[in-house]
Amino acid sequence: MTRLYHKLLYICYNISMNITYKESLQKQFSDFCKRNNPKNMEIAVEYFTVFGGLDKKINLEMPIDKLIEKHILKEYKYLRNFVSDITKGNEKFHAVLSASALGDRRTNSSFKRIKMSFDDGMDIVEELRDIGCIKLERCVEDVYVTDKILITAPFLRFWFAFISPIFKGIRDGNFEEFFNIYNNRKVEFTDFIFNQLSHEFLKIIFTEDKIYNIGRYWDDEIEIDLVAKTKSGKKILGLCKYTDKKLKKSELTKLKEHCSGAKIEPDAYVIFSKKGFSNELKALKSENLLLFTCRNFKALIEN
Predict the structure, then answer these.
(1) Residue 10 parent element (H or E)
(2) What would the pLDDT profile of 189-226 be if each residue is shown by its tens digit?
(3) Which structural domain range is residue 259 located in?
(4) Is the pTM of this model over 0.90?
């Protein structure tokens, strides 16, 4: 009876749930919000970071830790099968995905993390690209740096950062290690999805002078969260920061220093903040300095 019950439960899961990873991030976010109706965009971003791409209705009134335990940790055996369907259960695929999710996403450092040669690693990256669960991200400026691996669905990134590397304990019902790791990295982990959503938002609000290229800048010393180029040739450089503190003018100063160090001359700056901005920074807002918060992400649903 128990075996039959679990088999029927798995069949129900298979019918009612799917992992979406080939849709754009904006589409995944819009679908998530329409399905779960978050009270505000801060909640939407936080929960989307974990459940984005997982086609499942969840109760956003519950604390996120409780939802993770209920819908992911306790359902590990079923979800593992869905993930394995995507990755073909290939251990090398899993190793590269975890190395990317846990590190700086650069191809060379991801391969070093798992002691894999660059050529072998790139062969796996190409296969993962063919599957559709990753993209290769290139620096938007002409700088000689390695590409970065971008996992296409937040849930898959969450899985390979926090679940796959310590699956044995989770499989056996021991969740303590997971919560220790997750709670230590939660803000940093959410910050990246906030950054990605900022890119998606900027693409849809520039309706007259449309953005034709958007991405990030990195070299051995400098990283810039957002670099966008419009059809008219303008360059917009930005900072995306997911923090409970209001951002101050000093953040703009640092951004300008990074632009100078990267030898990029922007026509405008854009800053995204979870909690808003100091009065001093708000006073500088103009057509050359755009300021946005999570609240603005409502446009991602409407579009």
Answers:
(1) helix 2-16
(2) 999 999 999 999 999 999 889 999 999 999 999 999 99
(3) 201-302
(4) yes
